[in-house]
Each structure stands twice: as structure tokens, then as C-alpha cells.
TrEMBL record:
A Pfam cross-reference name: CRAL_TRIO_2
Name of the protein: Probable guanine nucleotide exchange factor MCF2L2
Keywords linked to the UniProt accession: Guanine-nucleotide releasing factor
Keyword field contains Cell wall biogenesis/degradation: no
InterPro entries in alphabetical order: CRAL-TRIO_dom, CRAL-TRIO_dom_sf, RhoGEF_Guanine_NuclExch_SF
GO biological process, one term: axon guidance
A GO CC term assigned to this protein in UniProt: cytoplasm
Residue ranges of every copy of the CRAL-TRIO domain listed in the record: 37-173
GO molecular function, one term: guanyl-nucleotide exchange factor activity
Source organism: Actinia tenebrosa (Australian red waratah sea anemone)
Keyword Membrane: no
């Protein structure tokens, strides 16, 4: 099975394609409004992309960012910011339509910040669109209308705004996309591993049963073949690769200065929330590794050099020899040696008797076990 053939667990919210993410039709830079709602921004410079992309793709992007805001910030609601200063009526209708559909599908919008259009007719069109939504009962969130970006800082602190809005929040969108795609790859790999782990453990248990059965039947077992099968079973799970990736990400999370890219990302407010899932994934992988190691170890019990019996089988065979000796001649001999001495002289003679008689029999029994 190749990595591409591995079945994947379907997330509730799928990550959009790279081209949609890079479009910047909507972004989640990590800023909050003063009510502590994460702010999703529809950058005005990217409004043309709203028309170039399919509406369902833009909506998928908005849903995905809403999902991330809940995962990263444990947020029960979001704020959406759209600057309509230079927008025309078509843009206004499209933006409000997307917000309406987003709210209808996820219901997480708490407030919509709209910077009013400069064009008077467009401003009137915006008022009509809002009124229409309100009449339809579609506005289950607060709408805050702002005259300009300066008014925006009444609701969102300057430190939580991008430079375009007069803020100081650091954000590099291409770097954000690159890191998020890497984190999503790890998430999917961990999901696949956990989903396939029971089947992998059963394969190892089945291999162990086959080996034990062959040894009991005195069939030849090639140790190298067993080890190769175990190695292939483990390799198909991709656990070692996932652990290596999680370990690297954990190291960069704690020491971002070790890598130029992570050093850049660490200066962004969104970095720590983005990386917050790495320790959990690492813990899941370690638990999976312990289970896999235990199953692999169970399959190695006593299987040392080629042709050597497992310890359990050896012990069983030796016990059979002891029982056989007792049944044949040992029982009568042992019974003859159970008399309790009546005098001190007889008791003092017991060590001599042991060396001359019992020890001699014990040596004989040992020879019997080894040569029979």
C-alpha cells in the first residue's frame, strides 16, 4: 500500500484547495475584536477574486476559517470584517449574500463590521440589502456600520488589525498557507494511522499465532522471513514517518529560531494557535507506537536465532520431561526419601545421604532432560 492509497478520514470541514487559500478572498490573521471574537477579514484588494472563484469555493473557505477559529481559539462565535469603501453594488450584494449563506450553514457569526461605501448610490443599495435580510429574518447577528477605518478601532484594537486598516498585526498570508497545509497533512496522517491501527495490531497478532503454531508442529520457521513481514506491516502504517514529522514540528514550535520559515511565522500572532494541535497529535502517535511496539514484542517472544523454539515452548517441553520422569521412576524414589529422622544422628547424616544418593539422581535427571 502506498501513501496515496491510504484511506482518509473525512473531516467535517475540508480544507479548500491551495489556489483557493492563496486567493485571500478571506483570511484569518489571528486578530480579535474587543468582545474577543476572532475576526475573519474579506480584504478589499481581493474582491475581484470573489467573482473569479465559484461561490461555493468562497463559501467553503469561509466555513473552513470559521472552523479554524473554533479549533484554535475555542471560540463560540466570530466577527467578519468587510471594507466596502470602494465597492460597487455588485460587490455589496455578493458580500452580503456570502455572509448570509455562511450564517445559515454554520451559525457562528456574532457581528458583521461593514465600512460604508463612499459612493452614495452604493450606500443606498447596501441599506436596501441589509433591510431585505432583516425582513427575511436572516440577520441573526449584529451589523455594525462604520464610516471609515478610523471608526473601526472603536471596536477592534489597533494591535489586532492588519496594516491596511491602520493596525500593527503581523501577518504573511503565503507563509500561513504553507504552514497550514503542512499541519493539515499531519492531521490527516494521524487520523489514518489511528483508523488503521486496530487492523495492523490484528495482523501482528495473526503472525504471532502462525509462528507459534508452526513451532508447536516442529515446522521450520525462518526468523528473517518473520522479521521482514513485521517490518512491512509496520511500514504500511506510516507511524514512524508521522512521528518524525510531529517531532520536527514540536521542535520548531518550541524553538522557531532553528528554522528561517518558523522564525518568520513565530512573529505572527496566529502562530501559537496554529501549532496548538501538534502536541496532541504527538501524544496520539506515541500511544499508537506503544501499542504497536507491544504487539511487535509479543511476536518476538523467544524467537532468537533461526530454528530456536520460543521460551514458552521450551518450558513446556522441559516440564513434560520432568513429569515423565516422575511417572516412570521418580515417584517411587521420592517416596522412599520422605522418612523423617527419629534421632539427631540420623538428621546429621541427611546431608551425606543427599550428596551420595539424591544429588546423584538429580544429576541423572538433568542428563535425562538434556539427552532424551
Amino acid at each position: 500500500m502506498t501513501k496515496g492509497d491510504m484511506p482518509t478520514q473525512q473531516n467535517t470541514i475540508q480544507m479548500p484547495g491551495e489556489d483557493i487559500l492563496l486567493s485571500q478572498a478571506a483570511v484569518l490573521p489571528g486578530g480579535f475584536d474587543k468582545s474577543r471574537h476572532p475576526v475573519i477579514i474579506l480584504p478589499p484588494s481581493q474582491y475581484p477574486n470573489l467573482f473569479q472563484l465559484r461561490k461555493k469555493d468562497v463559501l467553503q473557505l469561509l466555513r473552513y476559517l470559521t472552523h479554524l477559529s473554533r479549533v484554535w481559539f475555542s471560540s463560540q462565535g466570530i466577527a467578519v470584517l468587510a471594507d466596502l469603501t470602494s465597492a460597487d453594488q455588485e460587490v455589496v450584494s455578493l458580500v452580503l449574500g456570502l455572509i448570509h449563506k455562511l450564517q445559515a450553514s454554520v451559525g457562528k457569526i456574532k457581528v458583521l463590521y461593514l465600512i460604508l461605501p463612499e459612493n452614495r448610490s452604493t450606500k443606498k443599495h447596501l441599506a436596501k440589502e441589509i433591510q431585505k435580510l432583516q425582513k427575511e429574518g436572516a440577520c441573526h447577528f449584529q451589523i455594525t456600520l462604520l464610516r471609515n477605518t478610523s471608526d473601526l478601532q472603536t471596536y477592534i484594537d489597533q494591535s489586532q488589525l492588519l496594516a491596511y486598516f491602520g493596525g500593527t498585526l503581523a501577518y504573511n498570508h503565503k507563509a500561513w498557507v504553507k504552514l497550514q497545509m503542512r499541519l493539515e497533512d499531519l492531521d490527516k496522517l494521524v487520523e489514518n494511522i489511528l483508523a488503521q491501527l486496530p487492523q495492523t495490531l490484528e495482523k501482528l497478532n495473526s503472525l504471532q499465532r502462525q509462528v507459534t503454531s508452526s513451532l508447536r508442529a516442529n515446522e521450520d520457521v525462518k526468523v528473517q522471513q518473520v522479521e521482514t513481514k513485521k517490518s512491512l506491516i509496520r511500514k504500511d502504517l506510516y507511524l514512524d514517518e508521522a512521528l518524525k514529522e510531529a517531532d520536527a514540528l514540536l521542535e520548531y514550535m518550541n524553538n522557531p529560531h532553528l528554522d528561517g520559515f518558523f522564525s518568520l511565522m513565530s512573529r505572527q500572532a496566529v502562530f501559537k494557535p496554529m501549532m496548538s494541535g501538534v502536541p496532541l497529535n504527538y501524544t496520539k502517535l506515541l500511544k499508537a507506537k506503544r501499542k504497536l511496539d507491544n504487539a511487535t514484542k509479543d511476536c518476538e517472544v523467544g524467537l532468537g536465532t533461526e530454528g530456536e523454539l520460543p521460551n514458552v515452548v521450551l518450558l513446556e517441553n522441559e516440564m513434560k520431561k520432568i513429569i515423565s520422569w516422575i511417572d516412570l521412576k521418580g515417584r517411587s524414589y521420592l517416596n522412599s526419601q520422605t522418612d523423617v529422622p527419629e534421632t539427631l544422628r540420623e538428621a546429621q547424616h541427611l546431608p551425606i545421604k543427599f550428596d551420595r544418593e539424591i544429588y546423584k539422581q538429580a544429576k541423572y535427571a538433568g542428563w535425562f532432560f538434556q539427552t532424551s
